[in-house]
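[Structure tokenization] protein backbone as discrete codes

[Encoding] learned vocabulary of local backbone shapes

[Begin record] amino acids and matching fold tokens:

___
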Amino acid sequence: MQFDLLHPADQIVLIMQRIYAYGMTTTSGGNLSIKDDNGDIWITPGGIDKGSLTRGDIVRVQPDGTVIGPHKPSSEFPFHKTVYDRRPDLKSVLHAHPPALVAFSIVRQVPQTFLIPHVHDLCGQIEYAAYALPGSKLLGDTIAEVFSRGLNTVLLENHGIVIGALDLFQAFMAFETLDFCARLEISARRMGKIRTLAPEQVTLTARKRQPPLPTFVPGPVNSAERAARRDLCALIHRSYDQRLVSSTQGTFSQRLEGNSFVITPYGVDRKYLEPSDLVRIENGRAEAGKTPSRSVSLHQRLYEAHPDIASVIIAHPPSALVFAVTEASFDSRTIPESYILLREVPKLPYGTNFTDPESIVKTLTSRTPIVLLENDCLMVAGTSLLNAFDRLEVADYSAQALIAAQELGPLVAINKEQVDELVVAFKLEK
């Protein structure tokens, strides 16, 4: 989907649907706007159900103040306009009240943006704007004052979040990422001391790029590859809807015949990924005209080293990542299903994926199909795409149970004899 070619009203409806569907705003809460090239501001209406917006509901406010549309603009329109006046480089503003970020706003804390890479790059420095009456000129002035200092992400005291960007999708990516980070930090605090990345580590990761692969022009696509592309997209969409991956983070791949596989592209919205977006890799060459995930070389090495691995997933499931950003151990001996599918869950140091990828290749096997990378991601291998996805789901569900158990009492894990019994009954390799 080429988001930038959509009409401003359609862009606003599409993003508001996502925000509402994922519980990051309420029927009456939140507002989005886009400033068009001619100076018109398109904005969500006031008093209209955010869960059922249509393009006809979106209000257009012209530079002279003329309102076009069947509704009044959002009561927060004054601060949107003030932000655009102070920051003419911004073309979109997003405001919402996701519970995790509201939690930070009511205790006057800022979420850690150095828990995992890319968050600080997307969100930048975050500062507070003082509380003021919603819809008031004072609120607009306090928000715009922070934006006028070059910041794009502002927490409002006892209110919510405001993000400005060059377009609405960029604003949404920053919003989604910051909300994820806030939820991750809240859960991680329940498990113990949080480990953050040093700014230089984040900078190193941001600069790290895989060298471009040589390309090839693919021939006819057979039915097996068509099925693989279809199934990959279906499970990527499901993963996004379950918030196991974000709009542009998370990589799925599936082995094809010979020395080839298909993999997710770099920087394409996972919510609307289509079979034609996926990239075929064949003998170390990439399908011409497409950019594969930056982890493509690691996927290739895993397939070369382990003929029994048919699918690899790199994801950011919020509960499982709690164990990547703390010293807490991920103990899969919670219920039989968890141990059968996950086995032991080792952790590798941050940056291993580009400083020592062979360590991952040696560790991520059919006997150890789940690996946590500190302050980064969860890596999953499977004997099929569905098997890998099942493990991803079970990993996050198991992590949720482990976190919740902290409130109830000490963990009573399945003991050694019970584990040995599972190994024999389910023919698990030791």
